[in-house]
Design brief:
The complex is a heterotrimer of chains A (about 325), B (about 325) and C (about 280). Chain A is an alpha/beta fold and about 325 residues long. Helix content of chain A is about 30%, strand content about 20%. Chain A contains 11 helices and 12 strands. In chain A, the strands form 2 sheets. Chain A has an 8-stranded mixed β-sheet, sandwiched between helices. In chain A, strands 2-1-4-5 form a 4-stranded antiparallel β-sheet, with helices on one face. With about 325 residues, chain B is α/β, with parallel strands linked by helices. Chain B has one domain: 3-Layer(aba) Sandwich (Rossmann fold). Helices cover about 30% and strands about 25% of the residues of chain B. Chain B has an 8-stranded mixed β-sheet with strand order 6-7-8-3-9-10-12-11, with helices on both faces. Chain B has a 4-stranded antiparallel β-sheet with strand order 2-1-4-5. The relative contact order of chain B is 0.15. Chains A and B meet through helix 6, helix 7, helix 8, helix 9 and helix 10 of A and helix 5, helix 6, helix 7 and helix 9 of B.
């Protein structure tokens, strides 16, 4: 059975053209599939510049890939007729990062909810629509009488983001792309929002693609984690395995850099590490992490490593594991 | 020096908006010893950034410092004239502001920006001496000397932030205030920058106030932590103790809500909303959300008291 | 709340007050006036200002106060019609061009760019010369034909920026598209900017029309402030030192422009405050 939503060998390059021969490669030959049979939560973890937001926008159909295809139920998304897009929108929804910008300041917060009800014909009457909205708000822990009728600037960031989750709940999509849904929300409020995401998954059966730079919440929320580095998948696998036993040197570096409250050693005791590089360099050809990798070998600089299947349901793009069989796609 | 290097007493800052006075900092007191790292932790609206700016006397209208004392050694910074404060700023107490890397002048070379800071305070240094000194500063923060000839856009986020740290230590201050110095940076770069900050501080023998919301980061870096809520300090103590055994109900909920890599799928948030600073709740500002609230809480404002050696809490439970 | 914000915006307050006054006078004046006073030969010609004739009379015996009272609304009419038409066309073109991009954007943008290079006054003079019987309405239309150019570019620029906002993406995710999105999501956020642009458009239209009229290309059979200046110059009022003829229309033009300028500056402040608050 075809996947519900898939990025197949997708590359996205920004810029470039007549005056600048090389643009910025945001995504490099990346493949990712979201299936319909078992609703899952997949985390796409990456630092800024890893391409995770570009991937989100591609999956949502907001931008076109430079090469490769985005497939919706096995069909090329951008080849579909205009009339078929409403079905796509019904199935694939998003929660964006900035809870303030997501609301049109001209309207009250009801607007995003009532528009969804109207456009997707979720209710037969105005009263029914109103009931649906109130129910969705209560499900995310908001009180309708304190939320509806207010303007966005009158609500806190956490409340606004919860309204956005409520909007997704109303539509009941098959897939929700959540792009950094809690990074602009206070720590104490994150829990509620992440909980409602989990509820969406368990109660409504929606799959969630959780995009974040925060490995800790990625671990807490998701079943599987894909680690992105400079536009390619560095490592993918079950969340537990990737976090507890990271295999790619970049993942290892990430995990050991996370400041945990209750464990780990003190920082700032040793002298400053000279930053040889702290961002992906202009590596023409080889593994993009080569410049920063403590285990770099000659082969790393020649060709980018393919994904090796090191364990069941685990893939790592690193020549350290070149004895393992290569994977077709992640 | 046996006394504290910095002593803040009953600091109050308010923003005067058309709707009324917003009490951003409402009676904050704490002290900082020589060489100590103090973390000022809180969520948005807690008043931590305003406190940092107030220490530097960088509060602009409609904000105003309404009261209190900030004693650097024996001098009350709030009593100085603007001119005197300008000499103290950066020379004795310096700031790495939020989003500092975006405030670097894009048309000036790094060397010129650092030179500006130094020259403003010490006009005797010139030319070649200046270059040597700037080169030394950059190396102290783990950057190549050659960086001084570059422009900000040629540097990565982490490198720019290190330049800002270099600027903050250029005049060998006694206190460095760092306001969310790593908020826009990746986890890996964050660690490098924080370690740089720590190393620079130890070499100078200075004290640091780290303002932020990342409790995990505080745990790795600071010695003592002060938790702010609604413009007040609700708990102060050694960071390890406060995290392992938080006393104030807000601190307890805050620590519990910090995710770790042990428990999957368990989320503990704090219900309710942050209080309005325009008209804060009567009595203890946390009482509407407190799971241990009782009759005294909405009536009396609790004071910050030392309930155990080195542990200060502002709560009626104690 | 609105009044309080006016208090913080003295430019807008004074500008609107002045404009209001002018509009009231423009509407009420002709009604209260005895129109006969403005006819040829109503009074002895060339009288200096006095109690009976506040602005004296012109060389054909018209009471100048009466003429000015009749001329002001006509001038304002041209400004308003030309400004509104120009802005409406400009808004439509700018929105479509900015939001949809592609071929239609290229066409509209190139057209606007090309027309910016054409000297407007020269075109207007040429067109006006060919019209036999010029009326106030025709005047307005001629000026409107060039008044859309600047608004198109300005609105296009604003639309380009608004198009990238997150709430536009959310609307798209909600299934809103095309023209509906432009009208429901983007246009409301343009309103403060449109208000400021309207004032600017009216100002520019007035400059153009008064300029044309002063050259004698205006409506021959209606009173307008620009034509008063023209007739004054035509009949040698300047040489004869009849300052009471060309003085009042110029003074009134000045007052109108000052009020428009103040209102525009005040609106600029409103637009910027909103932008700052939304940021």
């Amino acid at each position: 059975m075809p996947s519900l939503l898939e990025a197949r060998r997708v590359t996205k390059i920004f810029g470039g053209g007549l005056l600048r021969r090389r643009g910025t490669v945001a995504l490099d030959d990346l493949s990712l599939a979201v299936h319909d049979d078992r609703p899952s939560i997949t985390a796409i973890a990456g630092e800024s510049g890893s391409g995770k937001t570009t991937l989100a926008r591609l999956l949502l159909g907001i931008i076109h890939p430079t090469s490769g295809t985005i497939l919706y139920r096995g069909r090329n998304l951008h080849g579909m007729a205009r009339a078929e897009w409403p079905t796509f929108r019904r199935d694939v929804q998003a929660i964006l990062q900035d809870p303030f910008e997501a609301f049109n300041p001209f309207y009250r917060v009801d607007h995003v909810l009532t528009t969804a009800v109207a456009k997707f014909r979720l209710a037969a009457s105005v009263a029914e629509g109103h009931a649906l909205i109130e129910h969705a708000l209560r499900q995310v822990g908001l009180r309708p009488e304190e939320t509806l009728g207010r303007y966005p600037h009158q609500l806190s960031g956490g409340q606004r983001q919860r309204v956005m989750v409520a909007r997704a709940m109303l539509i009941r999509p098959r897939v929700i792309i959540a792009d950094e849904p809690v990074s602009m929300v206070d720590a104490s409020l994150r829990a509620t929002i992440l909980e409602s995401l989990l509820a969406l998954n368990r109660a409504l059966g929606s799959s969630i693609v959780y995009i974040t730079h925060d490995l800790t919440t990625a671990y807490q929320v998701s079943d599987r984690i894909l680690v992105l580095y400079a536009g390619s998948v560095a490592e993918s696998g079950d969340a537990d395995a990737v976090i507890k036993r990271p295999q790619h040197p970049y993942t290892q570096l990430l995990v050991e850099s996370i400041p945990l409250a209750r464990s780990g050693s003190r920082w700032g005791q040793s002298s400053a590490r000279t930053a040889a590089r702290d961002a992906p360099g202009d590596t023409a050809g080889g593994c993009k992490f080569a410049d920063r990798c403590p285990h770099v070998m000659a082969v790393c600089r020649r060709t980018p490593p393919p994904l090796f299947h090191t364990e069941e349901r685990r893939a790592v793009a690193c020549y350290l594991y070149q004895d393992a069989p290569t994977a077709g796609s992640s | 020096m046996t006394g504290p290097v910095l002593s803040v007493e009953a600091l109050r800052v308010a923003y005067h908006t058309p709707a009324g006075a917003v009490r951003a900092v409402d009676g904050v007191s704490f002290s900082l010893r020589e060489g100590e790292r103090f973390g000022l932790a809180g969520e948005s609206g807690s008043g931590k950034s305003t406190t940092a700016l107030a220490l530097m006397r960088l509060i602009k209208a409609p904000g105003r410092i309404e009261g209190g004392r900030v004693l650097l050694g024996d001098t009350d910074l709030l009593a100085l004239t603007d001119r005197e404060m300008r000499r103290v700023r950066f020379a004795q107490i310096s700031l790495v502001p939020q989003g500092a890397m975006n405030s670097l002048n894009p048309v000036l070379r790094i060397r010129d920006q650092l030179a500006d800071t130094i020259a403003a305070h010490d006009t005797r240094v010139s030319g070649g001496d200046l270059d040597t000194r700037i080169g030394g500063l950059l190396e102290a923060v783990g950057l190549d000397r050659d960086v001084m000839w570059m422009h900000p856009h040629e540097l990565s986020g982490g490198m720019k932030q290190r330049v800002c740290i270099a600027m903050a230590i250029s005049l060998r201050p006694k206190v460095i205030v760092a306001d969310e110095p790593t908020s826009a940076l990746d986890v890996v770069v964050q660690r490098q920058v924080i370690e740089t900050l720590g190393a620079a501080q130890r070499r100078l023998g200075a004290s640091i106030i780290l303002v932020g919301h990342d409790v995990g980061l505080m745990a790795r870096f600071v010695d003592r932590i002060g938790v702010m809520y609604a413009g007040r300090l609700v708990e102060v103590g050694p960071v390890g103790d406060v995290i392992a055994d938080p006393l104030h109900p807000y601190t307890q909920l805050l620590i519990a809500s910090v995710p770790d890599l042990e428990s999957k799928g368990v989320f503990k948030g704090i219900s309710g909303l942050t209080p309005s600073l325009l008209s804060p709740p009567p009595g203890c500002p946390f009482h509407p959300r407190c799971p241990k609230v009782f009759e005294r809480c909405p009536v009396d404002e609790p004071a910050l008291r030392e309930v155990k050696p080195g542990r200060w809490v502002s709560c009626h439970l104690y | 709340m609105a009044l309080a914000s006016l208090g913080r915006n003295p430019a807008l307050a004074v500008g609107l007050a002045l404009l209001g006054l002018i509009i009231v006078v423009a509407i009420a004046g002709p009604v209260l006036l005895n129109q006969g006073h403005a006819r040829v030969g109503a009074f002895p010609p060339g009288l200096r200002p006095s109690g009976g004739h506040l602005f004296g009379t012109d060389t054909q015996g018209r009471d100048i106060f009466a003429v000015v009272t009749l001329a002001t609304p006509e001038t304002l009419k041209v400004g308003l019609i030309a400004g509104s038409v120009g802005l409406s066309i400009g808004t439509l073109l700018g929105l479509v061009s900015g939001y949809f991009g592609g071929a239609i954007d290229t066409v509209i943008r190139t057209a606007a760019d090309v027309m910016t290079t054409i000297p407007g006054i020269a075109v207007l003079v040429l067109v006006a010369t060919f019209i036999q019987k010029m009326t106030v309405e025709l005047m307005a239309l001629i000026i409107a034909s060039l008044a859309w150019i600047y608004p198109t570019r300005a609105i296009r620029a604003q639309t380009l920026s608004l198009r990238e906002r997150a709430y536009v993406q959310i609307a798209k995710l909600n299934g809103v598209g095309g023209l509906e999105l432009v009208v429901r999501e983007i246009l409301p956020n343009l309103l403060p900017y449109l208000a400021a642009s309207f004032v600017a458009a009216v100002s520019n239209a007035l400059i153009a029309t008064i300029g044309l009229e002063a050259l004698g290309l205006g409506p021959q059979n209606s009173f307008t402030l620009g034509m008063m200046i023209y007739w004054g110059q035509f009949y040698g009022a300047i040489l004869r030192g009849m300052w009471w003829w060309w003085g009042p229309p110029i003074a009134l033009i000045l007052i109108i422009f000052v009020s428009l300028l103040l209102t525009s500056a005040g609106l600029d402040q409103v637009v910027n405050t909103r932008i700052r608050r939304a940021a």
